[in-house]
Amino acid sequence: MKIFRIAPFFALLLVFIFAFNPVPVKAASASVNISSATVSVGGTASVKITISSDVEIGVYDLIFSYSGDVLEYSGGATSGGNGTFRLYADGSIGTSDTYTVTFKAKAAGAGRVYLQAPSQANQTGVIFPLAGTDSASILNSYNEGTVTVQAPSNASTNNNLSTLVVSAITSAGETRPVTLSPAFSPSVVTYSATVGEDVTKLSISATPADGKATTKVEWATLDPGDNKTYIKVTSESGAVKTYTINTTVSGETVTSTETTAAATDPNAISVDAEGTTMTVATSLEGVALPSGYTAETYTYKGTEIPVAKSADLGLMLFYLTNADGVGSFYVYDEQGDLFYKYQTITAGGLVYTVMHADDTVTPPLIYERTKVTIDDQEMEGWLNAYEQDFSLVYVMNPSGEKGLYVYDFKEDTIQRFNEKLFAAAVFGENTQSGTNGDGNALVAKLKGVLGSLYGLIAFAVLALICIVLIVICIILAVKNSRLAAYEDDTDLSETIDEPDEFDHDDFLSDEIESNNAVPAPKVEEPTVPVQVQKPEEGEAKIAEDVMTEAELLAFKKQCEEILSAGDSSASGNANGFDTSEKKDLDLLKDDDFEIMDDDDLDNK
């Protein structure tokens, strides 16, 4: 019985031990290994990428970068192109996975292949184990691979530019031509330019003189004051020439006569662009095309219009001017006959094009649509109240894939948004359905709770369980104490000796002897008249009235007193009763007379 009394307290103690002192477990780990390769210009390089872990992998999403001026993506990854590729898998993968990613060697040099900085907040560069193990990314080590591209013996050394056109991009997204000083010449490598204070970056279109040479633009973003922008041209042989543009951001707004001329063309067509009436330019002379775009013509409402097209992205740009003659490029959505401002986000050396988000684009419910400022451009985005350092944007990546991306305002980085990994990072959930997590089911339950709030709820539930257990223990303790008291009383009653059986004859004889010496006083206490009769021979004498035990004791005492008084009297009626009554009382002296209770009667 004592074991049952203390068992609830031991159970409660175990709950606290496991709740607040969990058993430590060894954390899982994973790594990414990238091999290196050597190839000649024009050849194909194979890079082996191995993803391994000491536990079974459930999900991973890894974004890699490579030197686009030296290498060109060929295949082997989930997707890739324009300086980046992605490895993604969801399901029962095992403890390792291997990819062979191939590249075409474009130019001589050292091509880097590396994993972009992992970011669990952005849900990229992460590896999650199968459900039931860890809830955080287990990636803890990775390396960088190098593809060494060797130039052929007869490789060209031409690293000159044939053309160089520069445009200024304002904070409002408008584009203006920039005049270089001196005028461009392939042999001149240093130029100067002045732009207005509202200009935030340069758009540069540079064409190499040799088709096998490559170009790379660095530091096109401008700050107030003096800035330097570099255009590096790498020849087939690997020789590099650098062109430098020294740009001064002045306190005045610099306008362009070429832009105004395009806006005042009498044959121009008016269109509605984002609620503003704009004019379609009929000439792109003096306007720098965005990198990767070429000038072409397009028939719009029966009129031949000069446009800029990107074969890789499948986008077409119109050059539109406002009433003040200030122009900029707009993306034309041919299917919806829609114009929206051409805006880009540059991060990690890659250019992402901001796309128009229609009703089919459904960010998680926790995000609200608003205007955000990225690269000094105001554009459409989505913010949530819990993470103001990050914004969702709908963009097209360099591979031509459209989707939601996470932009980090502090680090100026952009990563693909994966809703399922977002849920896993917060709740430790790891679904195995094989979907991309485009629905809002997971995020619906995220609304209003993130990180610390989730832990607070878990602690509250644990505290409630402990309180319930404490109440149960108190109730059991009270019941056990009552039961113990009852058992102790029972044991005590068993140890009390039963009184000796009353010997009526001995008692009467003792009383009679004592009364013969000293007369007893008359009893004044009320008596209960009892009628008795002498039974037939062999029968028991039974009192007519059935009495309780207390009444029997009182009756017995009265009878003894009456008999004692009767024997001490000389006359038959000395004590107030007649001779017949005295005769009846004499029957009490008979040896066959006994007083019975209810149980004795039942036995008779």
Automatic annotation (TrEMBL):
Residues 566-576 have a biased composition (Low complexity). Residues 579-590 have a biased composition (Basic and acidic residues). Pfam families: Cadherin-like (PF12733). GO terms for molecular function: carbohydrate binding. InterPro entries: Cadherin-like_domain (IPR025883), CBM2/CBM3_carb-bd_dom_sf (IPR008965). Keywords: Membrane, Signal, Transmembrane, Transmembrane helix. Residues 566-604 are annotated as: Disordered. Residues 179-248 form the Cadherin-like beta-sandwich-like domain. The keyword Signal applies. Residues 1-27 form the signal peptide. Residues 591-604 have a biased composition (Acidic residues). The chain crosses the membrane at residues 453-478. The keyword Nuclease does not apply. This is Cadherin-like beta sandwich domain-containing protein. It comes from Parasporobacterium paucivorans DSM 15970.
